Inverse folding.
């Protein structure tokens, strides 16, 4: 089970840190990813981290602003979001899978999502 937290309302240029807590599985050995879905749009890749945390991947739209990290001792993954823009507004989902990938179908486990709203 994956449970996201940390979403909320923030002004343009602000920061938020999302957290994803994992339980009930061997998520310490899973690659983890963050995806987001805005109203009326497809769910899109945001960032991913390998199971060891040694490799990270980002969508071009967030590169340089967002940072993904994980703590395998706590079985948690984080998304630090800086310099937020109104177009970052979406529901953000945590996902776990066998490989760090930008493809949704590479992830077997999904959280319920947390809303992030960036006001202009």
């Amino acid at each position: 089970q994956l449970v996201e937290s940390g979403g909320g309302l923030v002004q343009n240029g602000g920061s938020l840190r999302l957290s994803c807590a994992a339980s009930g599985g061997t998520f310490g050995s899973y690659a983890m990813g963050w995806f987001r879905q805005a109203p009326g749009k497809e769910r899109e890749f945001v960032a991913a981290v390998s199971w060891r945390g040694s490799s990270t991947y980002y969508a071009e739209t967030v590169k340089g602003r967002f940072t993904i990290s994980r703590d395998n001792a706590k079985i948690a993954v984080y998304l630090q979001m800086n310099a937020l823009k109104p177009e970052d507004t979406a529901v953000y989902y945590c996902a776990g899978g066998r490989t760090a990938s930008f493809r949704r179908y590479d992830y077997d486990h999904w959280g319920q999502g947390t809303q992030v709203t960036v006001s202009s």
In short: The chain has a mean pLDDT of 95. The chain is about 0% helix and 50% strand. The radius of gyration is 13 Å. The CA atoms of residues 14 and 84 lie 5 Å apart.
